[in-house]
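We emphasize that the prediction below concerns an isolated chain of 475 residues; any contacts that depend on oligomerization or on bound cofactors are therefore not represented. The input was used exactly as deposited, without trimming of termini.
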Amino acid sequence: MHCNRFRKAPITRRDMLGQCANGFGAMALAGLLGDAAYGAEPQAGGIVDPLAPKKPHYKAKAKSVIFLYMDGGPSQVDTFDPKPRLKAEHGQRLKIPTQPTQFGQDGAIMQSPWEFKNYGKSGIPVSELFPNVATCVDDMAIIRSMVSDHPEHTNANFFLHSGFGMQGRPSMGAWATYGLGSQCRDLPGFIVLNSGMIPPGGVDCFTNGFLPATFQGSLFRQGAVPVANIQRTEASPADQQAKLNLMHALDAAGKNHVGHDDRIEAAIANYELAFRMQMAVPDLMDLKGETEATRKLYGLDDPKTATYAHQCIVARRMVERGVRFIELLCPNVGGDRWDQHGSLKSGHENNARAVDRPIAGLLKDLKSRGLLDSTLVLWAGEFGRTPNSQGDGRDHNPYGFTIWMAGGGIKGGTVYGATDEYGYYAVENKTTVHDMHATVLHLMGMDHKKLTYRFSGRDMRLTDVYGDVVTGVLA
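Result of the prediction step, given as a token string:
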């Protein structure tokens, strides 16, 4: 006869429901893993690596993306969208309706302080602000008809990065690594290179949002310690490995009790990745092995271009290692970002000088190494600027501005879309931020309508319920 105090307690209703739910979940998971788009290779210890490479929906043109983010909003009419009418009517009032912008000022028409010249076999006009990038136009598709939903920096930054004008949604880089994983086991799949200026909105521009934490952008900076919190605090590598082994054991025990938990798996995957990064990051950031010709090509020898040149070289090295999505932030040129409400000439010249030679070096270097065809380079700000003046600067303009793409399945030597004669409104082939996101995912082999994550009761996606692939820029 058994004493009730020592008899195994009957299963509780809570335990029964939990175990049944995990059982049904396992059945569903088994079905998903039969689909190569969802499957992932397990690491040692049975932990599924969330960054393991996944098959795209269809054959990809681009294996990696380098996003050259021009924080602040470069002026389209002073860079890649020349408007002769501004010169002809300089100082006059605009003859078209204007929109209320953030500051609501409505000055006279201001001609561009810079001349435009035609470049390449395509004869595309580019401002003298970008004499080096201009030599690469035959590899670029310039979209002159971009529009955004937001005229203010923070909301426009969130919108550009995540397709939503408020913080909390996953960024484009997070979605890309969620959908495809990474081909590099020793580095994060989504890396942000901080050249000196964190944009309005802060690091939430690079967040994983509701996706698992593994897909958040990892911020790298220049200097002796490029990545925070990966230095070993244990006395020896053996002690550190023992900690990781213990986490694996505890996780396995927890699984038997409560089932799979994305948060636990992401935390362990991040610890594992940090362990491997301790060896990989110093080698990645050390440019001593780069040739003198390469250093000059990027402008590493010039103090005015060295910061961004360093980041562009590192971005190329990341592509070579298989990192999926790399974003470069603007360097600090001692003034504002591309946000010139005043002092347009000096402000845009300083910003352009800092990035022009490094960007051209990046495009040419990728091409010479056979990497441009499989790397999509995206150049974009959160909006453009008005053709009329605000003192000696220009106000925000989300109604018609310019971005460009190169490599990775892009039809080079292409101009797509157009603004009106003043460069104020997109009037031909209007292209939204959602369209841009759909196109980037398409070039990476993903259907933006199928790349979803169940959250808050519905299947969420980068493009929400919008977006069309811009077929006019595809090769």
